[in-house]
Structure formats: structure tokens, C-alpha cells
Amino acid sequence: MGRRIDETVTGRAAQFVWRTGGLLDQRRMALFLGTGSAGAVRDAVLAHRTSDGGFAFAIEPDVKGPEPQPLSAMGAVEILDEAGRLDQETGAGVCEWLTRWTAPDGGVPDLLDSIAAVPHPPWVQAPPQDQGGLLTTARTVGILRRNGIEHPWIEGAAAFCRDRIDALEATHPYEVFSVAAFLGSEPDRAWAEGVAKRIGAIVRAGLVLLDPSNPGGLEPPAGYAPGEHHLACDFAPTPGSVGAGWFTAAEMGAALDFRAAEQGEDGGWPIHYRRWHPGIEQQARPGFTIAALRTLRAWEGRA
């Protein structure tokens, strides 16, 4: 199937990240290669922390500037989880910061009004501040619970997520990624498994490109750019992912083959979303490259 993660693949990818990546992505790449340390990744993540305990400074490439955002806090805990270095002190600190911005329904808005003061995609606006966002809240709770973090904020936020997920009839890929992270750490396994089947049916009905050789065969979800698509391996980046049960072995194999073949001549992987300024591709591609390598390694020999 031509997707073995050998030295040629990783070597080309590493050269791409050394050439284009910032400190955080270079630390992540070194950890992936086995030449770096999880502690170095943690230090690079914490360099994005703001004086009030939030996270900013483009830890999420589309969220610029010094103003902390819930979406940036989510990005921080994701990378700490990737490195295996999300500890109680750091996780509880994230919860303390999120508590300040939690809406009456128990969730946090994905972005705060302060996003308007810094460069941001023109189609992105802060949502109502009196309502939580499932995308940020669910993924953050899922990751915190998976790492055994304890804090009063988590219980209320988890209740918000369960209510919103139970009522979910339509969604989009990035929200599904968050729901899957939440379901993976949900203690009530009977509920989680039932919901996973329902969400999987929604994904298969129009959110996933099952035939990567025919990208024009799937209409992009509402609000997505023409040609913006997600593969089965995006919904199931590891065999243990909640989304792994949504696809056949053949479907997953086709997705992984396509993802492997996307490695460019420069060694990096492309991004599949709207570019809103000339630098975003260079800033985002190193992270996409690391994600592709991690997914391909996780599935090697499994599909």
C-alpha cells in the first residue's frame, strides 16, 4: 500500500519542519523522531501562556496575537496530551482560566470578543458570549479527563457537552473531532457507544470523503471552502479512536493510502482549508505534517 513510515518519509518530513516550522513544531518533530524530549515540548507550549493563565501567540495558527482564547487553550492541552505531559497543575490552571469565561450553560465560547482586536480570518466572528461552544468545550473536557485532571469546572462542562450532544442533529467535521474526544473519555460507556453510532451515521451521510480519488463527489459542509474535505483517518487518527468503528478496513486503507501520497516534494503535507493570508500555509503546514506522520504511524500494519 506504499504508506510505510520509513526513514525516507520521516527524513523528508523532518527537513520540511526544520526549514519552515517554529520552535513548538520543531520540538514536536524531534519528539516524534525520538531525538527530543516531552519536557521540551511542554516548555514550548507553556511559552504561549499569558499572564492570566490562558494561551495565545498563535499556538493555533489561525488565532493570532497576545489575547488568550478558549480555542488556544484547547490547542495547548492537545499538544501537551500528544507529548504525554498534561499534568494536574497545568490542567487545573487551564480549568481556572476557562472558568472565568464559562457561560451560564456550562460551556465556554470558542472565541472571546477580543478576537476582533487581532488579525483573524475574515469569516470568523466571536460567537455570543452567553453560550458555550461544543467544539472547544467537548475536546478540552475529553483531553482533560483522559489525563486524569481533576477540577470542579470539568463536571459542569461535561454536563453541558452531554446535553448538547444529545440534541445534536447536524454538525460539521471539526465539531465531530471534539465530540469523539469527549466520548472517548466518557465514563458512561453505554451512553457513549450509543451516541457514537448516531454521530458516525451523520459523518457517513455527508461529512467524510470515503472515496479520496473523487474529491468532487462530496459537497463540502456548510461554511467550508470548495475542495475542503476530511478523510476517514481524520475522524479516526488512531485505531483506538471512537471514529475507528465508523469505517470499514477498505475505507480506512484508502484514506491512509491517500494521506501518505499527499506528502509533497518539499517533504510536507498540505492544508485543506481556506487560506486567509499569504503566511498561513507556511505557519500551518508543519503541524499538519506532524499530524499526518502520527496518524500513519498509528495505523501502520493495522489497515
Question: Can you offer a commentary on this structure?
Answer:
With 303 residues, the protein is mainly α. It contains twelve helices and no strands. It has helices at residues 7-20, 23-33, 38-46, 70-83, 88-101, 134-146, 152-166, 173-184, 189-204, 232-235, 249-261, 280-299. It is globular. The N and C termini lie close together (10 Å). 43% of the residues are buried. The mean pLDDT is 95.
How are the SSEs placed, and which strands pair?
Blueprint (H helix, E strand, L loop, with lengths): L6 H14 L2 H11 L4 H9 L23 H14 L4 H14 L32 H13 L5 H15 L6 H12 L4 H16 L27 H4 L13 H13 L18 H20 L4
Structure summarized in a few sentences:
The protein has 303 residues and is mostly helical. The protein has twelve helices and no strands. The protein has helices at residues 7-20, 23-33, 38-46, 70-83, 88-101, 134-146, 152-166, 173-184, 189-204, 232-235, 249-261, 280-299.
- What is the H-and-E element order? HHHHHHHHHHHH
Q: Helical element count?
A: 12
Rg over CA atoms: 18 Å
Beginning-to-end CA distance, first to last residue: 10 Å
Task: Give the structural class.
Answer: mainly alpha
Query: How many strands?
Result: 0
The share of residues in extended strands comes to: under 5%
Mean pLDDT level:
95
**Helical percent range?**
40-55%
**Overall form:** globular
Largest sheet: none
